[in-house]
Amino acid sequence: YACGQTVYDDLHIGNARMYSNWDVVVRYFKWRGYKIFYVRNFTDVGHLTSDADVGEDKIEKAARKEKKSAQEIANYYFSIFRKDIRELNIEEPTIWCKATEHIKDQIEMIKILEKKGYTYRTSDGIYFDTSKLKDYGKLARLDIKGLQAGKRVKIGEKKNKTDFALWKFSKKPGVRQQEWDSPWGIGYPGWHIECSAMSSKYLGKQFDIHTGGIDHIPIHHTNEIAQSESAFGKKPWVRYWLHGNFLVNKEGSKVSKSTGGLYTLTELKEKGFEPMVYRYFCLGTHYRKKLVFSFENLQNAKNSYARLKNLINETKDDSKINEGYLKEFHKAINDDLNMPKALQVLWKLVRDKNAQGKIGTIRKMEEVTSLNLLKKEELKIPQEVKQLLEEREKARKQKNWKKADKIREKIYKLGYIVEDDKEGTKIKKR
Questions:
Q1: Residue 293 and residue 250 in contact, taking contact as beta carbons nearer than 8 Å
Q2: Which residue, among 379, 373, 372, 374, has the nearest Cα to 417 in the 3D structure?
């Protein structure tokens, strides 16, 4: 199960890094011969602007801002999201699950928790009582006593600071665009109950892997565990948690909307960076480490990716498999999904002049990396470069080699390499 997008805005490159990481997980297990049942949600209600169960619903806020219905907002940004992840070669999940289509499942789960004595009512909703769990916060290793004894924070009618909403009441029924009737009153689900109800509906009361960002650990995933293990009695509810680290700037601060730098894939393309370059950039840093984003670093990745493709394109095609390199590749990924090391193995193979079965082996590796390394792309030569090529050809016919060499240097600075052989002049990207 992968925590998906709250579809109120465009997919940004921080999100794109996460989905690229989890795509490798899915592809690797398939590569190893496992059958994968992969569930990814998208949130279209209940995700508030504050993790403290206050603030405005992000979808409702976007709908008001853009003067559209909440459903129009969710559908539009979900379509953008799917387009972007396709451009990143991220596989579609087995099941897409939409929060608003699973309200009944969420209500049923809250009823189970209520029956077992884990809930209480306030004037603004139904809350989960975290004091009923001795191991609450185990995923994040939260110091609950220290947390509660810290600086004073208004908790309203909550019994405990860590308690969280399962169902929120509409302040004035009929004002919100998205609200439903329930045994407790008209309202909408809390964000955490959505993921628990949807994941368990499709994967069962106990399943193997749950992914997300490290920012989900202290609240969202901690609360998912609390309510799910309380409802289903299964410990652990999830066997393995995978958390990706942040995209950060050079100073090490998280790249966010407030600090700037959260570009979309479209904005990166406008700056000359195709989605496969960004995927390559992401796979070059371990998923549990911070990825330092800058256009300088992205340009380095672009250059590296282009060199790799050029070397592969110059390699003679064959269908053999180099078992030694494939084993080394597998060993790298098997070490906590060490994709940077796996890419090093790929580079080592490409540069090995004595290696046999290069293309066949790269084709197998591509089942995991999915970087379009073997895809033949039509070279689009800018008009400026075409004109320089014509000028160079005239200089060569006039045997003005000095001028021809200067033009070659100009072309190189524009990002293209000119090569002359018996068959004529060839050009390729630098």
A1: no
A2: 379
Contact call for residues 3 and 41 (beta carbons, < 8 A): yes
Alpha carbon separation from 155 to 52, 214, 220, 226, 345 (Å, rounded): 9, 25, 18, 19, 53
In angstroms, what CA-CA distances link 278 with 122, 255, 287, 405? 47, 16, 14, 34
Task: Give the C-alpha separation, 158 to 182, whole Å.
Answer: 21
HSE-up of residue 77 (Cα within 13 Å, Cβ side): 24
Cα(26)–Cα(4) distance, integer angstroms:
15
Which of 339, 351, 239, 421 shows the shortest CA–CA distance to 22?
Answer: 339
Closest CA to 179 of 61, 7, 60: 60
Residue for token pair 């060839």: 426
Sign of CA dihedral 151, 141, 4, 373: positive
- The first and second tokens of residue 295, run together, are 């256009």
Q: What is the pLDDT of residue 379?
A: 75
User: Hey, how many other C-beta atoms are within 10 angstroms of the C-beta on 153?
Assistant: 9
- The first and second tokens of residue 192, run together, are 């955490």
Q: How far is residue 216's CA from residue 243's CA, in Å, rounded to a whole number?
A: 8
Q: Which of 197, 205, 193, 289 is nearest to 239 (CA)?
A: 205
Structure tokens at 10: 């465009």
Which pTM was predicted? Answer: 0.86
Of 248, 201, 243, residue with least CA distance to 222? 243
Residue 345 near residue 329 (C-beta atoms within 8 A) = yes
pLDDT digits (tens, 9 = 90+) for 361-408: 999 999 999 999 998 877 788 899 999 999 999 999 999 999 999 999
Q: 161, exposed or middle or buried, with CB in 10 Å at 0-12, 13-18, 19+?
A: middle
**Length of the chain, in residues:** 430
Q: What is the DSSP string of 277-335?
A: HHHHHHHTS-TTS-EE--HHHHHHHHHHHHHHHHHHHTSPP-----HHHHHHHHHHHHT
Structure tokens at 407: 């033009």
Residue 161 confidence (pLDDT): 93
Residue 199 near residue 106 (C-beta atoms within 8 A): no
Q: Which residue has the tokens 């884990």?
A: 118
Which residues sit opposite 386 in a β-bridge? Answer: none
